[in-house]
Amino acid sequence: MKCPVKPLVAISRCLLGDPVRYDGRSRGDDFIVKTLSAVFEWAPVCPEVAIGLGTPRPPIRLVSRRDGVHVEGVDDPTRDVTGALGAYARRFAEAFPSVRGCILKARSPSCGLGGLPVFSANGDVVREDGVGEFARVLSEFRPGIPCIDEERLRNAQQRDAFVRNVLRATGNKNGSLVGQNGRFG
Ligand code: SF4
Q1: Nearest-CA residue for atom 5 of ligand 1
Q2: 32 lines ligand 1 (CB under 6 A)
Q3: What's the CA-to-centroid distance between 161 and ligand 1, angstroms?
Q4: In this structure, is residue 78 part of a structural domain?
Q5: Concatenated DSSP letters of 35-102
Q6: Does any ligand 1 atom lie closer than 6 A to the CB of residue 170?
Q7: Is residue 53 part of a domain?
């Protein structure tokens, strides 16, 4: 069953198979590419490429500083892209006001929705509740927007709930893409 108007969903480009990861690879997800592409219209986004980091690029990570968590180069802490990622999240939110949901890459210092390691300046893990900077700022500009990562999408209940919430946010009150057994997919 297809929705007459596909809801617009922001998605990390690497999950669609684009080779934009820091190591030049992709993380294409079959379920997203083959199944969810029939349901959602994509607003693909790679914040790190969008702010000009290039591919491949040196890895970045979350680092706890006195004034908060920063996103810095692993090998070069002076390469601080916190502000650039946040500014891009704001521009993205403004450019895509009709986005009704987000599917973002787990464990990324830019796209991760939670549970990321936060390092000290010495490289020790001091917390494991970090959020990717793009995801964090985007959620400030779009509070309450349904978001999920590819790992939670593998859980049927969380996947169904995400699809329903996006449909409801699109104005589909009963979530008509959910199948007769009450589940999507
Ligand atoms: S996780 Fe986000 S920033 Fe990293 S490659 Fe994928 S889309 Fe780009």
Answers
A1: 21
A2: no
A3: 24
A4: no
A5: IGGGT-EEEEE-HHHHTT--SS---EEEEEETTEEEEEESS-TT-B-HHHHHHHHHHHHHH-TTEEEE
A6: no
A7: yes
Domain count, the chain: 1
Q: Which domain holds residue 150?
A: 8-58+83-115+131-169
Residue 176 lies in a domain: no
Amino acid, single-letter form, for residue 121: A
Q: Is residue 138 part of a domain?
A: yes
The number of the ligand 1 atom at minimal distance from the alpha carbon of 20 is 5
State both tokens at 18.
Answer: 């684009």
Q: Among 13, 74, 81, say which to mutate for ligand 1: greatest number of ligand atoms within 8 Å of CB.
A: 13
Tell me the C-alpha distance between 110 and 131, whole Å: 8
pLDDT in 10s for each residue of the chain, 185 residues: 454 689 999 999 999 999 999 999 988 999 999 999 999 999 999 999 999 999 999 999 999 999 999 999 999 999 999 999 999 999 999 999 999 999 999 999 999 999 999 999 999 999 999 999 999 999 999 999 999 999 999 999 999 999 999 999 888 766 555 443 445 44
pTM of structure: 0.92
Q: Does ligand 1 have an atom closer than 6 angstroms to the CB of 12?
A: yes
Distance 42 CA to ligand 1 centre (A): 15
Would you mind telling me the total number of residues written for the chain in this entry?
A: 185
Query: CB of 111 closer than 6 A to ligand 1?
Result: yes
